[in-house]
């Protein structure tokens, strides 16, 4: 094996846009690139200017998360003209049974045509064709690293990513965990805040749920209303093990949507009493989400669980969002009180 000093001799600067899969895979990417001794430059949290720039470069019907990705790449390039690479992974399939949305499949190709983009550092995840370790070797090769160095880096990254997932399942909020990763801090849970009287499951793609600019800090608004928020990342692994059967003829082929439906399946059955409502944040013009939101809505009606769907785009306004949240929280609270009174009455009659 080559000594570490040799690895650090070349100072390669790699830019990572804070968008899309950043909210899901950044801990893995960071550890992998750190181990390969490259310097990471992260773009800042989304802001108005980044969104505006992304919207200018993305065509009208494109979903807002991809437009933000454009804006984040352009911000990186402008502020760091000395970047050697911009990291744009191609996620095709992480498991054999499902695919990522087509937007992820073509991401490096569409970013390549933006003005003044440096070399693209690709990392292709497609387990239908080859193991992820192969992609790590390819990535290392591009950076001038040996096969052994790349494989070691990959193993370390996987170990760190497993620890990160355990931390989330122990209850860590994703944005808190990402901040710790960004600052090279150990995984420690935040101080527990006062518990709310309601518990909601917040569904959606990580980039919709955890980009607090584009979702107008949705989670904080719920917490301010006395709601405890659960996201898919906090749920136990066992929930996602069995595939979701929609019907004999209909199967879902999208990776994220499969997770969303698996979570719903759990709360419609075994976990029914664990939550008081479900909110689904979706992006305007998102094909995969609009398909499953119909199915989720149907199931929610059957079990009588309060359900709210919120569609976001670059024009979403704060006032409208607050009004909808307040009304929904009030409705869920009344429903919970009524259920408690009904069950007390039943017990009295039995006695
Ligand atoms: S899943 Fe939907 S929101 Fe995500 S990239 Fe694809 S179209 Fe956009």
Describe the structure.
- There is one protein chain.
- The protein contains 14 helices and ten strands.
- Helix content is 49%, strand content 13%.
- The strands form three sheets. The chain has a four-stranded parallel sheet, with helices on both faces.
- The chain is an alpha/beta fold.
- Strand 1, helix 2 and strand 2 form a beta-alpha-beta unit.
- It starts with a helix and ends with a helix.
- The longest helix has 33 residues.
- It folds into two domains: 173 residues, no CATH class; 156 residues, Rossmann fold (3-Layer(aba) Sandwich).
- Bound molecules: iron/sulfur cluster.
- The site of iron/sulfur cluster has 11 residues, from helix 4 and helix 13.
Please provide a brief summary of the model:
The protein has 351 residues and is an alpha/beta fold. The protein contains 14 helices and ten strands. The protein folds into two domains: 4-176, no CATH class; 195-350, 3-Layer(aba) Sandwich (Rossmann fold).
Note the main attributes of this structure.
351 residues, alpha/beta, Rossmann fold, 2 domains, four-stranded parallel β-sheet, 10 strands, 49% helix, 13% strand, globular, disordered N terminus, binds iron/sulfur cluster
